[in-house]
Amino acid sequence: MITRIYEENPNPREVRQVASALRDGKVAIIPTDTLYAFVCGIEHRQAVDVIARMKGYNIKQAKYALMCASLSQASEYLRPLDKPTFALLRQCLPGPFTFILEANGNVPRTYQNANRTIGIRVPSNEVARAIIEDVGTPLVCTSVRPLGDSGDEPEQYTDPELIHERFGRQVHVVVDGGLATDEVSTVIDCTADFVITRQGKGIVEI
Question: What is the CATH number of domain 2-198?
Answer without folding.
Answer: 3.90.870.10
